[in-house]
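Supplementary Note 3. Input sequence used for the single-chain structure prediction.
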Amino acid sequence: MNNKNLFSIGEIVKAVGITRKILLNYEAKGLIKPDKKDGTTSNRYYTIDTFTQIHTIRVFQNLGLSLDEIREYFNDSTDLEPIINRLKKMRDELNLTIEKLEKRTQKKGSVIKEITIEPQTIYCRVYNSTSVADKTNLLRDTALEAMRLHGTDTTRRMYFTEYNADNPQSISYCVAVQQGSKGEYVSVIPELKAISFFHHGAYEEISEARKRLITYAEENNLKLTGVFRNIYLEGPPQHKDKSKFITQIIAIVE
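The predicted structure, written as discrete structure tokens, is reproduced below.
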């Protein structure tokens, strides 16, 4: 068909990056229909508007929506709030993943920054421990308990320990859990001001690296509460080489 305003099925699948079978499946599902169909050859042709609709379908599919959900979206016959919430969660998880990958590419000795820690719901157990091996196992045990009882909040940094400089052997092992979780060992941490940097290296080096925060606070007239937090971005589950561990070291500011 010689019409510059219409696209053949071959042009459409090439432009969108899909197969003819996928496009015909969209038609079978009631998501699209040909704008023109040749009566002799049954060839299908599409306008730029239909091309845009197909592109939208692919975007939504890549975000995890089913074809039924997409059809309801086009028909304006669905509650969008659950979809919006799902996409927001995906966005937050993606942002965390991007941040972690960026930190992996950075060299050791990242810049100290003044930050705000947003409120979050956590499952937290307190134990006395000294060795790195004990601390690692206790955090794993706490993570397992939290997951079984409340699930985990994958939109937040999931695992961290917290301790006071006056009693560093008494350590809080904390796991981010779903908002609204209730029960023993569950609490909500309020918004906090802090200073922070990302340490690349073995856990045994953290106590020495922490001194950077103390020095920074003294030089910038910041008063610390004495509470420190280690957020574990990458460790034994990802690497055998300890030099590749990434830990966000945080000092809470008054």
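The chain has two domains: 7-74, 105-253. The first strand starts at residue 7 and ends at 8.
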